[in-house]
What we know:
Chain A: Its EC number is 7.5.2.13. The structure holds two protein chains of two kinds. Chain A is an alpha+beta fold.
Amino acid sequence: MAQLSLDHLTKVFTDDDGSDIVAVDDVTVNIEDGEFLVLVGPSGCGKSTTLRMVAGLETVTSGDIRLGEESIADQKPQDRDIAMVFQSYALYPHMTVRENMSFGLEESTDMSDDEIHERVEDAADLLGIPELLGRKPGELSGGQRQRVALGRAIVRDPEVFLMDEPLSNLDAKLRSQMRTELQRLQEDLDTTTMYVTHDQTEAMTMGDRIAVLDAGELQQAGTPLECYHRPANRFVAGFIGEPSMNFFDATVEGDRLITDAFDYPLTEEMREAVDGANGVTLGIRPEDIEVAADDSPTGGDEFGTTVDVVEPMGNENAVYLGFDEDPTDTFVATVGGMRRIDAGERVVACFPSDAIHLFDDASGDALHNRSLADAEDAGAEPRV
Amino acid sequence: MRRFFDRLTQARSGRSSHRSSEDDADARDAMADGQRPATDGGVPTGAGTGDGTGSDATPTDEAGALGRGLARLDDRFGEDFVESSPFWLPPFLLMGFFVYGAIAWNVLISLTDYEGFGNADYSQLDFEMYARAFGDPTVVQAAINTFVLLIAFTGICLVLGMLIAILVDRNVRFDNTLRTIYLLPMSLSFVVTAQFWLWMYDYNNGIVNQLLGVVNLGPYNFIGNPRLVLGAVVFALVWQFSGYAMVVYLAALRAIPSEHFEAAKVDGASIPRMYWRVIVPQLKGATISAAVVLMVFALKAFDFLYSLVGGYRPPNGADILATKMVREAYQNTNWAYGSAIAVLLFLMALGVIGPYLAHQYRNDNL
């Protein structure tokens, strides 16, 4: 067991025409011993490349990867003590499940056949697939293949698990089931794990910490709730959360924020935070917007709106609202699923001041994050 | 024409309902009587019923016998047996007559004593020619040569083709150029290959002997020496066909997901081990199909040997069953004897193709 550190890790691909493409740009992140780190980001953000560099499948352009105290950046994949689970599972089709699971042990260790046999049996028991050991991958369902792919990694008992979107080929129900199972498994084995996904539900629910990447750069590394409530910048705020945060471009005028559709009064705290910033973006999560069914906004943080579209989810309704001043510019709020609300209805939307995030337009950095009155780290200074 | 299509769609829907129906015997009968004959293309007279309205009505028995007969054929040989016959029947008959008929006739001739001019006498059939062939050392030698050629040529082509394919697949420099260079000989005719390998093998001026001379070997009489000639022929054929094996392997290699290579690497396998245990086993299908094609080429090496010497008598030590057969039949007019040798060659070819066909059949690919 060991700590995995990525130190200013950079990967540059050179295109056929000689131009350079920076896939991973100066990423530094530490993964503690036994920690489950989720790398998350949109397609093409460099998260898989990062993982593949750790696996040794891509060379490192600059920077270092350390496992414990030892640098593994220049080692061959077979010399690094890691196991990887691939998105497509990459099970060898001509081998039985048992042979698939034994392969790594046969190649990378000098264990006796009996020991290997035992390890494979144990891993199969752990995953609940002992009856599949004699079958070929072609005879297995997607979920079973997934388990075998996990089993192949587990039997190796490596220092680090690398998982490249291992659940993305499963259907929704199986995926959520495997999600909890994988989490439990990782807790039991207590192996350092690096997990790549584009699915923010997986990121939020599975990771001890998540690292958000965009365009090759690390945007934020923190616990899921930190990233959710205290996003470091506008990208993280927009990426984490579903439906995603509403953003309004605004300018600061005295103690008010002026947007195309509304004016918003700034509190003292916020005013200090935006001091010196020219343009700011106001962000508010859909669930923080309070929607009241009367027709008379009191001004201040309440606005008259018209319901444009309602998306009922069962547990909640996603309501798209248009401002009276500018009905084409809609934003989304979520209300309870039992509440009846119809398109065309006039409602009042309230943006509570303790739920407001403010981001600098130029850098995208967070100037002010929502207050967490009842959270443990409440009262922390707003990040500037 | 419209009516025909109407009936066709009707019959279709009838058939699909029959598939889902529990009581399919009844449904089938109804179809046989009512709608089915109408779809059978070539039998317009028997198709009196089935005009739009009568799909569910109990059918009258106008076309009963014929319809029932056709439906029974369909039941026996699978759906659409009769409807599809215009498409498969003509080629079936042509192939049957000109290929299988000819084989049968050849077998028949091999049982006679037909030789010289005149006509075959089919009244006395025996295995005399086969006995003669088995007792003839030149035939036995030709059979051995054929077998050696078959195995050596196929084996070397496959191994070489696989190695080159792996190199090309690993993106060595100029892989596209390499691929073209290796595949190009395949497009040459046997006649061309034979001629210029004849020059290259030339005892005095051939480039092969010149090159060997550089390292103080030879010169060897590749064509004249009975111990070398078969090897020389195999080498020339390998030169021509290993490119084909390469292309087949390359396609198979490219079809293996790159994750398999990566998974094997992460699993700790060295590159040779990775190929040996993970990649090569996945090339089994490609090996089988390439081997079958190559073996068939090996059996056809007649063209090559014929153009090597410009006649039916190949160099000593390179006589194969095909050349022996043609020589007996067309030079010595031993028609029956030639036929018997042809049958032996046919059985050898069958020995190659048979297992492959059986394998394909078992896997439901036929």
